[in-house]
Structures are given as structure tokens and as C-alpha cells.
Design a protein that fits this description.
Length: 504
């Protein structure tokens, strides 16, 4: 049997249970299903993977209450004990890594070559924050002449975690691991389009001994259970990974209860390649950062800004590479680009093929539905050239394997084009000139910049965007700052003069 056939056969075994019984809710340590369900389709061929319970506002209320009731004991548990439990959770992820990877690929269409590592990276996220749990409360010591101040951090309370469908498992671990390590309890609302790996995680939480009510998962729609989560008075903060429009909505929804929010939103990230760049490495990175993960990646470099001196040579090489990408079934180990996550998103991405024509750009490669691959959401990797920054394909997040290229002459031009968008998540600079790299790093408006690299993630480093790409930062201590309150304690040395009133 080929590796592909083995993957298919194991995925059938793992997925069978979802056909037999609807996916349920996990609240207060108990799993249950609702009468009303919706169908979860795989983008591989748009067939059903099974039914999903449609959570109600009442389910969400129960989940928030469960998180509230479980909070005091979890908060008061020692960091060392939380560390042990979270490492145990990571061990269990590793045990079920094969299942997580295959289920995730079939649910969201991401090629198995990338999803294989997703579960392991998810476990690594948990281990990183587990190790930091004992020091989460640490603060500063701030001295005055007659007083000493010290700060201490305490978990903010139950929090809501709302995640999208592009890489559901990995993104959920980024948010949930620091929340639990800091002593918060959570209510997770996964994307309705890709709910399977979130339920595997809930099962692992139960199995790993995370106390009942500390972790709750509610399936259902954003407009109902998602909205309720952001409005619930027991929930003190909401972390969202999703669309910028959803972030705006959640801010409004959470206003009455003064929710603290952390948003990781969309991007239209530039990769800027100068004439003096290392040509081959830049080419590899440009292809990787837009066509991996089906282009459904917030940090994808969806705009290539190419200096006119090497433009023709670079685009010729790029055209060849894009034409050569292997599109196919996500469980085939040779597949580089799988189907887009769901039909609605496929329709959105396909609409930009027409928009590009209307804009006056050239479709150098792709631009078509790969109907030859069956009834799934397959799009051919696409390369638009002759674009300019005013075009919709240069301004709007397409979130697919679609690259828009724009030529430029000078550093100043590159900065102006790079910043001419509502977004500001990440940017990538390719140059051998260190001074220029420093100038670009200063002037490109984004939360993260990589110089001569693709998206290399360092867990202690801050992750997040500016402008419409988000609010706040993830990673290392930044995550603890979000999930915790800082208290200042000011202690007098007993030597200063206390003001005296009413003594005479
Ligand atoms: P989305 O905003 O439509 O959905 C995200 C989640 O929000 C889902 O669980 C959804 O049910 C929920 N939701 C929707 N409306 C809600 C409401 N009114 N109240 C509460 N919850 C609500 O996003 P998507 O289409 O699932 O994901 C794609 C988007 O995510 C892209 O824009 C992408 O750039 C972004 N993304 C950003 C990052 C990042 O780190 N910046 C990472 C991955 C994806």
C-alpha cells in the first residue's frame, strides 16, 4: 500500500465515529449532544464528515458558568502543579498526533505534509507555556526613597477563545496554552466549518486530568454562541483569531461588559525583494510563504514587491515554480496545495480571478477551478502580474494560493506601496544590504518583519499586527500580560511623613 493509501485508510478509521454520532459540546467535564445539528463537509469532495451539534445561547451560558465555577481552584493551584498537568496534556497530544493530523487534513483541506507537524507543534506550544506556569505571577520590584513597590500578576478569570478554520488545531493551542498556564479557565468556540480537532483536544483535556470546567468547548455559529461568549459577564477577556470584520463586531458586543480583547486578524503582507537579494533563497521563500498551507495563512506574503532591476528574471523563475506546484488530495504526501477549507471560501477566492481581469492585471499562472480533481474546493495556484497598488487584488485579503506582484524602483517606492493597505500584520524583506534592511524595518508598518527569512516562529517573541491586522501580542510574556492582571503593592519603610489633617 502506498503512503497515500495508508493515510486514506487510517483517516477512514479515525473519522468513522463522527459519522456514527453527532459531534457534541464539552461543558463542565461532560460531553453531550444537541437535537439540532448542522452538517460538516470535507472540502476534499464536499461530502459529509458527520453532524455537529448546534450549540445554543443556553449551552454557552452553561459553559461560561462552568468556567467561572472552576476558576478559583485552578487559579489557586500552584504553578508547578499546572505545569505537570499541561505537560501531561502535551504527552497525550503526541500520542494522538497521527489521528489529529489526518482528521485535521480531511476537515480543513490542509496538506498532510504540513499537518503532520501541526500536532507536534501544538504539543510544543503547551510545553513552552507549561514550563512558564510557575513564573507567571512574577512581577517587578520598583524602588522609591521611602517606599518599595512590587508587582504581582494574577489570572484575569474565565476567558473566551474564538478560533478560525485555516489551521484550527495549531491556532487553538497558541491561545489556550498560555491561558491555562496563567491560571485562567477557558471557553473555546471553534470555527463551525472545522470543528473536529477542537473536540479531540477537549477529549485529551479530560484524559490528561485537566479539572472539569477548566476547559469547555461549545460548537455552533459565531452569530449565536460566539456572540453570547463575547457578551457573557463571567468572561473577562476574549482572544480571537479571525477576520478583521469579526474583530470589530466583537469589540461592539463586548463593550457592555468591558471585555479585554486580543485580536489576530487578517493581512495583506508584502514580501519585498531587492535587486541585491539572494535570488534563489528569496524565490524559495516567496513561493513557500504564499502557496504553503493553501495560502490560508494570516502571515502569507500575498503581495510580492519586486525591484524592477530583477523583475523579469524573477517573475520568469517564479512562473515556472508556480506552474509546477502539485495540487491534490490533502492526504497524498506529494500534495503541496490542497483544497480550500470550504465552498463559501472557495467561491470568494474564485471571485478574485474575475476581479483581477476587471482590475487590468495579467493572470500569468492559474486563475481556474481545478474541476478535474473532483467535486472538492480545488483552485489552481495563481500568479497575478502587471498589478498596481490601487487594484483590489493588491488591497484585499484573498486568503488563498494567489500572489499579486507589483514592480518598484526605489526603497521609498517599496515602503510607500508596502504601507498602502489597511493591514499591517507581517512583512518580509530580501536584501544583502544591512543598512537598507534596518531602514525598511523602521518604516514598514507591520507587527512583525522578517529579513532574509520566511515565517520563522520563536515562541518567546511577540506575534501580532497593527492597523486592521489586530490588537495586542501573543507569545512569551506578552501572552501572560493579556491573560493576567498586574497588581501593584506599595509598602512604606515607615520613615516618611504622613500628611496630617484635622490635628489643630
Ligand atoms: P471569522 O472571523 O469569520 O471566524 C473566526 C471565528 O469567529 C469563528 O469561530 C466564528 O464562528 C467566530 N465568529 C464569527 N462571528 C462572530 C461574532 N459575531 N461573535 C463571536 N464570534 C464570531 O474568520 P475565518 O473566516 O474563520 O478565518 C479567516 C480569517 O482569520 C482571515 O481573515 C485570516 O487572516 C484570519 N487569521 C488571522 C491570523 C492571525 O494570527 N492574525 C491567523 C489565522 C487566521
Amino acid at each position: 500500500m502506498s503512503e497515500f493509501e495508508q493515510n486514506l485508510s487510517r483517516s477512514k478509521e479515525y473519522l468513522a465515529r463522527f459519522k456514527d454520532a453527532p459531534l457534541g459540546q464539552f461543558i463542565g467535564g461532560k460531553f453531550y449532544t444537541n437535537d439540532k445539528t448542522f452538517t460538516n463537509l470535507t472540502p476534499v469532495d464536499n461530502s459529509s464528515l458527520g453532524e455537529v451539534s448546534e450549540g445554543t445561547e443556553l449551552d454557552m451560558d452553561k459553559a461560561c458558568e462552568a468556567a467561572k465555577n472552576a476558576f478559583p481552584a485552578w487559579r489557586d493551584m500552584s504553578g508547578a502543579e499546572r505545569k505537570k498537568i499541561l505537560h501531561h496534556f502535551a504527552d497525550k497530544i503526541v500520542e494522538r498526533a497521527d489521528e489529529i493530523a489526518l482528521v485535521e487534513s480531511m476537515d480543513c483541506g490542509q496538506p498532510i505534509r504540513f499537518m503532520k507537524q501541526a500536532a507536534i507543534r501544538g504539543a510544543a506550544n503547551f510545553r513552552f507555556f507549561a514550563d512558564k506556569a510557575p513564573e507567571a505571577a512574577n512581577g517587578l520590584s520598583l524602588h522609591q526613597e521611602d517606599h518599595t513597590n512590587f508587582t504581582v500578576r494574577t489570572p484575569i478569570g474565565p476567558v473566551g477563545i474564538i478560533t478560525p478554520w485555516n489551521t484550527p488545531f495549531m491556532l487553538a493551542t497558541w491561545k489556550i496554552a498560555p491561558a491555562l498556564a496563567s491560571g485562567c479557565t477557558i471557553v473555546h468556540k471553534p470555527a463551525e466549518m472545522t470543528p473536529l480537532s477542537a473536540m479531540l483536544m477537549a477529549e485529551i483535556a479530560k484524559d490528561a486530568g485537566i479539572p472539569d470546567g477548566v476547559w469547555n468547548t461549545v460548537n455552533g455559529y459565531g452569530a449565536t454562541v460566539g456572540k453570547r461568549l463575547t457578551e457573557h459577564p463571567a468572561i473577562k477577556a476574549v482572544a480571537l483569531v479571525g477576520d478583521s470584520a469579526t474583530g470589530r463586531r466583537i469589540m461592539r458586543q463586548g463593550a457592555d461588559t468591558l471585555k479585554r480583547v486580543h485580536f489576530e486578524l487578517g493581512g495583506k503582507n508584502p514580501v519585498i525583494v531587492f535587486d541585491d537579494a539572494n535570488f534563489d533563497r528569496a524565490l524559495d521563500a516567496v513561493v513557500f510563504m504564499i502557496y504553503s498551507l493553501n495560502g490560508q495563512r494570516c502571515t502569507s506574503s500575498s503581495r510580492l514587491l519586486i525591484q524592477n532591476g530583477i523583475k523579469d528574471k524573477f517573475l520568469t523563475a517564479l512562473e515556472k515554480r508556480v506552474s509546477n506546484l502539485k495540487v491534490g488530495h490533502p492526504l497524498d504526501p506529494n500534495t503541496e496545495v490542497g483544497p480550500l477549507a470550504h465552498q463559501e471560501h472557495f467561491n470568494k477566492v474564485m471571485s478574485y480571478m474575475t476581479i483581477a481581469q476587471e482590475d487590468g492585471a495579467t493572470t500569468k499562472v492559474g486563475g481556474i477551478h481545478r474541476a478535474d480533481l473532483g467535486a472538492g474546493c480545488y483552485v489552481s495556484p495563481t500568479l497575478f502580474t502587471d498589478a498596481d497598488t490601487t487594484m483590489r487584488i493588491a488591497q484585499e485579503e484573498i486568503f488563498g494560493p494567489v500572489l499579486t506582484t507589483i514592480g518598484f524602483d526605489t526603497e521609498e517606492d517599496a515602503i510607500a506601496i508596502a504601507n498602502d493597505t489597511d493591514y499591517g500584520l507581517s512583512g518580509y524583506i530580501w536584501t544583502e544590504n544591512t543598512g537598507r534592511a534596518m531602514r525598511m524595518a523602521k518604516h514598514v508598518e507591520s507587527g512583525m518583519l522578517w529579513v532574509n527569512s520566511e515565517n520563522n516562529r520563536n515562541l518567546p517573541s511577540p506575534f501580532g499586527g497593527v492597523k486592521s491586522s489586530g490588537i495586542g501580542r501573543d507569545g512569551g510574556d506578552w501572552s501572560f500580560d493579556f491573560y493576567m492582571e498586574t497588581k501593584n503593592v506599595c509598602i512604606a519603610h515607615g520613615t516618611h511623613k504622613v500628611p496630617v489633617l484635622g490635628a489643630s
